[in-house]
Design brief:
About 70% of the residues lie in helices and about 0% in strands. It has helices at about 5-10, 15-25, 30-45, 55-75, 75-85, 100-120, 125-135, 140-145, 150-175. The chain is elongated, with a radius of gyration of 19 Å.
Amino acid sequence: MSENDRRFQDAVLPHLDAAYNLARWLTGNDHDARDVVQDACLRAYRSIGQLRGASARPWLLAIVRNACFSWLRANRPTEVAGSLDDTERAGSTAREDTSPGPETLALENLDRKVLNDAIAALPAPYREVLILRELEELSYHDIANVTGAPVGTVMSRLSRGRRLLAQSFQVVLSHVESGGRR
């Protein structure tokens, strides 16, 4: 195994789940995300010699992000142009049945779907910083490195993205509270 192969294996492969997660949120589906991650891995392998510093994760996620936007520009140019505008449950150890009932499961699935739909509806700059911060738990500095934006812009996009997400939930809640009537 060559030095580059070993470096790629040690530095990149542990972060494939994070790479796929980001690509999935940016492209909007599993198939396209897999294609983008494959392309990003090829790019990462070719430039593994440029990797500096201790953490390969932000470096790889920056490559994934760039691959996503390249793919989106080639396959869905209107989305890119429009987007840049503005474990198990802890429970009792008793033998009683503590599993959630069908109503609870239905509400949890609905909540998850509403959240996923709300995140997916965010413009890409807000969606990507939310995913990188909240799901991938990157620091502001690392997000700035991934996106190529200043830290202040990252913080601003994160704040705006959270606000847009909250507004989206308020619309859904008001719709549910009104019994689905418009």
